[in-house]
Amino acid sequence: MCDAMQTDNDVPDWEGRWRDVYTYLERSGPFAIDGFEPGDEVKEVLHTSKILVIGAGGLGCELLKDLALVGFRDIHVIDMDTIDISNLNRQFLFRSSDVGRPKAEVAAEFIMKRVPGVTVTPYYGKIQDKDDDYYSQFALIICGLDSVEARRWINATILRMCEENEEIKPIIDGGTEGFKGQSRVILPTHTACYECSLDMQTKPTTFPICTIANTPRLPEHCIEWASVIQWPKIFPGKKLDGDDPEHIKWLLDTALGRANQFNISGVTYTLTQGVVKNIIPAIASTNAIIAAACANEAFKIVTSCAGYLQNYMMYVGDQGVYTYTFSLEKKEECPVCGSTALKLEVNPEAKLQELIDILLDRREIQLKRPSLRTSSTSLYMQAPKMLEEQTRPNLEKKIGDLISDGEMITVTDVALPINMRLTVTFAK
User: Fold this and answer.
1) Taking a C-beta distance cutoff of 8 angstroms, is the pair 364, 193 a contact?
2) Contact 26, 38 (CB under 8 A)
3) Is the pTM above the cut of 0.70?
């Protein structure tokens, strides 16, 4: 579902419209990149460069506004979500009358209505729907995503394209989490990619099961008790749906009973839903700051009027305003941009299931349902069902009986956008 929304792209610029922006494009300066030539040509580059924004949520709304106001006139946006009433407190391009409509389409309409001369082309759907030809048309890609899986996919896709075509297509990635956020510049094949930083992801909050079951001290403990212990007991085989009001209401009532028993206050409907869905409150000001940083990098990269970020900026705003910039290093063993296979030393007497458990615990690769095979045989395959049943007995076999010392294993997983190479050596 994609159609370029029409706008009068020939609206004449009124006097002084780009005065502040052109300040950086009409003269050189000490921060300009070598080769930068001020003048009309670089202004034309700014206004004609085609930019892709992935995500039209809290960060995406800010990004679209910033990019349009800084002079980008050919913007595309992808988002697979529709507008919910809970979005309206921070996603300012939407109104109550827009609830239920695709975010990408409404955001495009709003930007073109408010910023004359800008064309925003929306696509309501998944990023995986588009092919290489689609992504190759853009000067750069800006990600305002809230999904690790989507970030991993676009990172691997663009990096593969750049390797095949021997080109560089910059990716600017922004992310927020409450009062914290980051922006980064990824130059495929040259700088650390998104996969290189997976171990920096915030680990989801978990609570010890013994505390939940025996000595709850926090309202979150009571909610976890209701969802993890009581729900499976009362509704065996029934999946808990964090978006179902009846399910959340049952959890709330159950958690309140538990809280009253231990004199704990603070159990609310909002907190219950937040704990079940691992929701981190979205802060509008954090979105604004990170979006501005990403748009600033896009402006610098396209115009070369100043050096771009090298290459990671962190922002913390819960106890003041703090930023820290550093250069994230490429990982040689990165499955996407690295040049060597991941190395793992194991006990040859250990079972194959233990090897899989080790891989599942590695935060830097974040696997979910890994399948393993060598160049000659399938060790364990998650799908299809027939192959899973055939390879399941291998899980209880010793690793030393299945592979040789130093042999390379190929790992595939629903969370991996590419195949991962793993070299297994035996502990002496």
Assistant:
1) no
2) yes
3) yes
